[in-house]
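Module 6 notes. Inverse folding takes a fixed backbone as the condition and produces residue identities as the prediction. Think of it as a translation problem where the source language is geometry and the target language is the twenty amino acids. Below is one complete input and output pair. Work through it position by position during the lab.
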């Protein structure tokens, strides 16, 4: 089965998505997501200018060989742009293989370990009362797990929290800077969970994301203070370029730790997993080299008791989410999948068969990954440059994201 065409579709139905479509001489095509939030066009060019020409004429069945060709053959390895581009190719080829064999991708990954993958919703507000109401609403809808984020008193804006007076936040044009105070945050975060647990009890799993803004000792303190609230996880406490920094955190708290949404390969988390410094690895299909490489990360993590809790914010397109659902039902040590609803317009462009049932994401029964793209509709939503907000500490220096 020869590859006859490969093209990149950049579209912005509510937010930017980069999709690769690979066509074959048998009339079967596959799609893969290469979206890298805030740096979308870098991946689009990597694909269009460098990988697509090499794909033409290759056998679409040879997924592993194509992965190795692009990873090893480039000389320049790893990094978010490279690995998102490789992921787009990889997922499109798994999609093609599923369609060619008339079977869903979970079946190609060894069959099902479970019928659906538990997912978590997002409670996020400027007011704690509203956060509590959101958790209650999600629980009533059947969600088993909810991430809890609230504006810290004394801060004007905060990443992931709706902006004052406006709808959703996160994306700014031109880029925005937001003031940040770790001290204020640390005073507030434990009280926030005191209030939330008192209101909603312990039957719902709660999670929290610190967005890499703490030092190891601050993270250890926070984790210790939150132990009685029995979080499902405390996420991204510190930037993890230095994996050994998690030793300090681990020594100070038994609160489960999750990290890895910005990781691109196993090399980013090898020590974290081998030393059992984390409980959940958050690497995603789109940012960690596709299904082929994420499988290897999961396989490495399994004997160490580390489970996957893959990133799934709305900048991970419905294509990645489709692939993630197949991965989540097939992979033994997949524990939970982040789920954030995509912008409404995304359903004008993408058509997907995966769905939400009683707090679990379940695959449909289409062959492949079960997601399609309408190119004409995609063309109606022109790319818009967008940036993630940048944090600035009280002393004026740039903070960690
Ligand atoms: O593009 C970055 C977002 O996807 C990320 O900031 C969201 O932290 C995030 C999360 O946990 O979903
Ligand atoms: Mg996060």
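Target side of the pair, the amino acids:
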């Amino acid at each position: 089965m020869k590859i006859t065409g490969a093209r990149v579709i950049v579209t912005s139905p509510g937010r930017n998505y980069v999709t690769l479509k690979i066509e074959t001489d048998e009339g079967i095509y596959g799609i893969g997501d290469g979206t890298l939030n805030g740096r979308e066009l870098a991946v689009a060019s990597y694909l269009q200018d460098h990988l697509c020409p090499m794909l033409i004429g290759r056998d679409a069945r040879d997924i592993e060989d194509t992965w190795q060709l692009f990873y090893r053959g480039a000389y320049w390895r790893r990094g978010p742009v490279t690995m998102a581009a490789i992921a787009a190719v990889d997922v499109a080829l798994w999609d093609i293989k599923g369609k060619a064999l008339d079977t869903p991708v979970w079946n190609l990954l060894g069959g099902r370990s479970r019928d659906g993958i538990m997912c978590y919703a997002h409670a996020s507000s400027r007011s704690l009362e509203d956060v509590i109401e959101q958790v209650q609403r999600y629980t009533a809808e059947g969600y088993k797990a909810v991430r809890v984020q609230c504006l810290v008193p004394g801060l004007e804006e905060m990443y992931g929290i709706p902006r004052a007076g406006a709808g959703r936040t996160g994306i700014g044009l031109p880029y925005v800077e937001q003031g940040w105070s770790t001290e204020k945050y640390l005073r507030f975060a434990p009280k926030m969970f005191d209030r939330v647990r008192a209101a909603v009890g312990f039957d719902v799993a709660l999670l929290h994301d610190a967005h890499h803004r703490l030092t190891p000792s601050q993270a250890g303190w926070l984790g210790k203070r939150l132990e009685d609230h029995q979080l499902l996880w405390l996420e991204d406490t510190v930037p993890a370029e230095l994996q050994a920094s998690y030793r300090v955190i681990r020594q100070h708290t038994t609160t489960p730790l999750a990290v890895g949404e910005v990781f691109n390969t196993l090399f980013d988390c090898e020590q974290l997993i081998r030393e059992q410094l984390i409980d959940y690895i958050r690497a995603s299909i789109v940012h960690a080299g596709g299904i082929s490489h994420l499988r290897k990360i999961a396989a490495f993590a399994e004997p160490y008791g580390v489970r996957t809790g893959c990133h799934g914010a709305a900048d991970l397109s419905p294509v990645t989410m489709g692939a993630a659902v197949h991965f989540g039902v097939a992979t033994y040590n997949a524990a939970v999948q982040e789920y954030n609803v995509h912008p409404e317009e995304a359903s004008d462009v993408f058509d997907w068969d995966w769905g939400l049932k009683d707090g679990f994401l379940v695959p449909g029964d289409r062959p492949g990954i079960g997601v399609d793209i309408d190119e004409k509709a995609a063309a109606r939503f022109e790319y818009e440059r967008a940036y993630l907000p940048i944090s600035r500490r009280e002393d004026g220096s740039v903070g960690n994201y």
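Reference fact for the lab report: Residues 127 and 150 are 7 Å apart (CA to CA).
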